Amino acid sequence: MKKILLFMALSLILILTSIGCSKPKVDDGSIELTVMHFMTEAAIGIDPKATVIHKLFDKYEKENTNVKLNMTAMGHDDYQIKIQSLAAADDLPDVFIIKGPWTKTFVDNELVSDLTADLENYEFKDTYYDKIFGSITMDGKIYGTPIEGNAYTCYVYYNKRMWKEAGYDEFPKTWDEIFEANQYFKSKKIPAIGLGNRDKWPYNSCIISTLGDRFTGSEWTQSLIKNEGAKFTDEDFIKVLEMTKKFGEENLFNADYNSINNNQTQSLFLTEKYAATIEGYWFMGPINRDITNEITKHMATNIGLASLPSPSGNNLKGNPMASSGGAGWFFAINSKLEGKKREKAIELIFELGGKNLSDGIAEFGEPGPNKSEIDISKFNPIRQNYLTLTDEYETIPVYDVWLQPALIQIMNNNFQEILNGTKTPEDAAIDMQKSYDEAYNN
Known about the structure:
alpha/beta, D-Maltodextrin-Binding Protein, domain 2, five-stranded mixed β-sheet, three-stranded antiparallel β-sheet, globular
């Protein structure tokens, strides 16, 4: 009997041992990071930032063979909707792009990791431009690495031939001259300025933030951002809204500006359907791509760049050579990351939002978040014009980078209603101020 029990015990031990050996627990140190962004493969070769960031992804994986990047990319506007819905569900990826105005919400809900100490340990921390972390900073703590430098959102791209035929050797410097020229363009059935505002942000980002500063000056904008007394109902900002109303009354833009997006506007400008358009730095990518095509290659010497016109008379308070700009988008990491996984995610976002990014896009003639040398002589005349104008600009805040998202939505709706003639500037100012008070004073 004892032999039988001993045999059974030994058999059980062998079975348990064989089970353990058949599925050994081996820690090979491999790490998977989920990454979400809006740098689609379709933008490679067009957008310098997307082109370089994809190269940096490849470089990172080659140098970190134990790290697998599980990436999801989608279009810019779709991305904004998706990432905010994931944030609401507390289901964010490990690494993702965050917009400056979202910082408070993401921090208050403990969704993003504080990178302040990590930045101190970054080899190239002293090469970042001043104030580059402004909109991603809260209570003195930094929550993202910038993927933009002096990323100006307001350049006037104009067709030199068309404006010369209208009587202007260069783009007008005042709005009174623009309205005068608009009469000529209306007679030719050509919109003086193309606008694609279907998604509502272009008028805010590309026009109103800079136009506003021309009337109010930067101190007013800073007061608004810091909640130090500036109001949308102030007289100077009402003048901004009155100018918006005049744009609509004068039919300055294409009639379908509310039903097309800015990408369509870019194409229409390049095929000479508009005399000008007001866009950000990102338009330089499509220009450099499209001017090599048969249909648009003559535009290589026909596109001029200019600063946004100023109000006439004594209304000017802001710098006429200022543009809305600065870093609005940043790579961030999920606050849930710990240990080796967090360490690898930190390495990745400083690769994507640091000196290597800046040096990479400098080769395309694009300023980055870190100081990098750009030899403008090797670029075409349009890019040289762009870089020269960029160097001359003073940076002023983009409203929809610094103000709260709920307020921005109300602002964008009101701008559209004023342009359409369905709301007065005074009523719009009251509506915006009410939303501001709800966002900042409750």
